[in-house]
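Is this the right way to post C-alpha cells for a design question? Let me know if I should format differently. Anyway, here goes:
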C-alpha cells in the first residue's frame, strides 16, 4: 500500500474514525504526546497531524474552558 496512501486513509477516512479513536487519544496532552511520540518512533510520523495540532492548541483550549 505504501506509507503515503496509508497515512491518507488513516487521517481522512470517515468510516475508520470510530475504529481508530483509541489509537489517537485526545483526552489529555500527555496521552496525545505519548501516542505522537510512539508513532514517530516507529516511522509513522505522517499520521500524527491531528495529535500535533491538539497538543499545540491544548493550552488555549484549557484556558478558554477555565473562564
Amino acid at each position: 500500500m505504501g506509507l503515503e496512501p496509508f497515512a491518507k486513509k488513516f487521517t481522512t477516512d470517515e468510516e475508520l474514525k470510530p475504529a481508530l479513536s483509541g489509537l489517537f487519544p485526545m483526552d489529555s496532552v500527555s496521552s496525545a504526546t505519548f501516542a505522537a511520540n510512539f508513532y514517530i518512533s516507529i516511522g509513522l510520523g505522517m499520521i500524527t497531524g491531528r495529535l500535533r495540532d491538539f497538543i499545540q492548541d491544548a493550552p488555549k483550549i484549557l484556558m478558554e474552558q477555565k473562564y
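Format looks fine. Someone answered above. Worth noting: The two ends are 47 Å apart (CA to CA). DSSP finds four helices and no strands in the chain.
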